[in-house]
Amino acid sequence: MDRFSWSNGLLEIDETLVVQQRGVRLYDGDDKVKMELGVALLSTHRLIWRDIKNHECCLSIPLSQIIFFEEQAAGIGKSAKIVIHLHPSSPSKEPGPFQNSKYSYIKLSFKEHGQIEFYRRLTEEMTQKRWETTPVSQPLSSGTGTQVCRKTRAVGIVGIERKIEEKRKETDKNISEAFEDLSKLMVKAKEMVELSRSIATKIKDKQGDITEDETIRFKSYLLSMGIANPVTRETHGSGTRYHMQLAKQLGDMLQAPLEERGGMMALTEVYCLVNRARGMELLSPEDLLNACKMLESMRLPLRLRVFDSGVMVVQLQSHSEEEMIASALDNVSDLNTNYSSSLSILLSSLSFLNYFPRLLLAEKVGHLCRDDSVEGLRFYPNRF
Amino acid sequence: MHRRGVGAGAIAKKKLAEAKYKERGTVLAEDQIVQMSKQLETFKSNLEEFASKHKQEIRKDPQFRVQFQEMCATIGVDPLASGKGFWSEMLGVGDFYYELGVQIIEVCLALKHRNGGLITLDELHQRVLKGRGKYVQDVSQDDLVRAIKKLKVMGNGFGMIPVGGSYLVQSVPAELNMDHTVVLQLAEKKGYVTVSEIRDGLKWEKERACHVLDHLLKEGLAWLDSQATGEAHYWLPALFSELTSRDVTPEEANQMTP
């Protein structure tokens, strides 16, 4: 922060304002500067920062001082930032708010967003380096220039600033209109949620006579609105017709891929496969899970299986437990030594899923025994 | 499933029950379902109108998405529960997050051989953005977090561990308890940790520290550097920054291990 100089914030004759953004806080290196939120202005020649409330408090730094800059993504509770690394000050630098600093970089923190646009414009200006081709006649510091000059510049910049302000207000207006409309929508949605809760209570208390058909319809209403089904925790998931249709589609679609992969696929892999194939109108993870839960009751040749570790797979019905154990044993004796689970991770993180559960099964039944060490988990034929 | 309300006796019973309820002023559930169906139609057209005006807003503005999600959560609605939901169909919110889910899974899978299934939210964010290309909409870390929350239901061990002001995203069902998490947090500053640092920083006995480190090694989350000056360093590849590491493909990794 010791690279900044005090400035009156007025642009020079050949200097043009490129973009400005409110709600910017300055950081000296990693430390917050003890100043209020301000407006960051980027011109063809300089980076300017002005306190939003106190316009007298205005700093600037020539763009030529910038070595390079990078984005710092927003985090939880943290705004997005642009980190700017600077050359050491030249000896003829005008005085600024800080005499010295232990950092040679600063950060602009965008509390009201706008970092993407600002970053893009800064990149453009730093590429074009327009300050080199249109040098300003006077040193850019406070208190210089004749009375007349200052007036002309002031009109110019005020006009430009006003345009930018109008545009910002327009964007803000669009966004606030959207928020208003959204709030009205949410009020209506809330009514639906309350109604559905009332219905659910009644179904539970068996007030009135609900037919199977009406229950199914009710569930589909809940699905449309995104309301969690409070009525029953069935093993068949939410059991709507949509999910039954999906289950059938999965039955057709996954036969071949499953056979290619030895009869088993992780649910996450299925999710990627199916959604990549669809391209649009994608399935949610819950849609997929609910559809898979129906596979058994619909007597399709696939099953959803949940292992102790929590891993969920879809497997071909034809894969009985004996087959899996037999195939695990084959692999172990084939390799003639041991089957290290960490090795299989390296081979293919997906086929690992095929083998590990089989190894565990075989171990449970007593056909294999394990050797558990820091080097990894290994399975050997059980000769005990 | 049985057929209810069959026969004259049942009909009479039903009429009696209805009369009783109406007397008490209670609305019957089936009447409410009819009411809900009507309200749903109205809501659907309101949502369509909203979508025609503001669909772009949601796609372009991560901040607006956050507001939208928070409002939904407040009233008890999950717009991402199903691709068949109104929100997803009309606002296109669903496709945005479900596709993001696919991209997250693919990134985690591609790097699993290197970091054991643990990656910083920052790195995940960078790589997802890279994969998406320049002209697709902006994706924020909040978007990633929400997509990951949805992925959890598929039982694949997706989880988020708070570390150093941000998060580590776990994509394998490795069991990580509080001890493991605390050691990860300790390692965050330098990318590695030693037994002494754990003893000094956390005041644990050597045995406890070694137990935790051994588990991390086994799960492939930590790498042992026994040639470090002083004592052995336990590195966490998940915490390596882009600048100091080189990408190794699974094939190369294969050739390196004995």
Automatic annotation (TrEMBL), chain A:
- Where in the cell does this protein reside? Cytoplasm; Endosome
In terms of PROSITE patterns, this protein maps to: GLUE
Q: Name one GO cellular component term.
A: late endosome membrane
Ordered alphabetically, the record's keywords are: Cytoplasm, Endosome, Protein transport, Transport
Which Pfam families does the record associate with it? EAP30 (PF04157), Vps36_ESCRT-II (PF11605)
Q: What GO biological process, any one, is recorded here?
A: protein transport to vacuole involved in ubiquitin-dependent protein catabolic process via the multivesicular body sorting pathway
Q: Which SUPFAM superfamilies match?
A: PH domain-like, Winged helix' DNA-binding domain
The record lists the membrane-crossing segments as: none
- Which segments constitute the GLUE N-terminal domain? 1-138
Q: Which GO terms describe its molecular function?
A: phosphatidylinositol-3-phosphate binding; ubiquitin binding
List the Gene3D superfamilies.
Answer: 6.10.140.260, Pleckstrin-homology domain (PH domain)/Phosphotyrosine-binding domain (PTB), Winged helix-like DNA-binding domain superfamily/Winged helix DNA-binding domain
Family affiliation: Belongs to the VPS36 family.
Note the subunit structure.
Component of the endosomal sorting complex required for transport II (ESCRT-II).
Which function does this protein serve? Answer: Component of the ESCRT-II complex (endosomal sorting complex required for transport II), which is required for multivesicular body (MVB) formation and sorting of endosomal cargo proteins into MVBs.
Task: Please identify the protein, giving its name as recorded.
Answer: Vacuolar protein-sorting-associated protein 36
Q: Which lineage?
A: Eukaryota, Metazoa, Chordata, Craniata, Vertebrata
Automatic annotation (TrEMBL), chain B:
The signal peptide, as residue positions, is none
* The organism's place on the tree of life at top rank: Eukaryota
Q: Which InterPro entries match?
A: ESCRT-2_cplx_Snf8, Snf8/Vps36, WH-like_DNA-bd_sf, WH_DNA-bd_sf
- The main place the protein resides is cytoplasm
For this UniProt record, give its keywords in alphabetical order, as a comma-separated list.
Answer: Coiled coil, Cytoplasm, Protein transport, Transport
Would you tell me the Gene Ontology cellular component terms?
A: ESCRT II complex
Give the matching SUPFAM superfamilies.
Answer: Winged helix' DNA-binding domain
What subcellular locations does the record give? Cytoplasm
Q: Does the keyword Transport apply?
A: yes
Report the Pfam families cross-referenced here. Answer: EAP30 (PF04157)
Q: Provide one Gene Ontology biological process annotation.
A: protein transport to vacuole involved in ubiquitin-dependent protein catabolic process via the multivesicular body sorting pathway
Assembly behavior = Component of the endosomal sorting complex required for transport II (ESCRT-II).
- Family assignment? Belongs to the SNF8 family.
What this protein is reported to do is described as: Component of the endosomal sorting complex required for transport II (ESCRT-II), which is required for multivesicular body (MVB) formation and sorting of endosomal cargo proteins into MVBs.
Q: What is this protein called?
A: Vacuolar-sorting protein SNF8
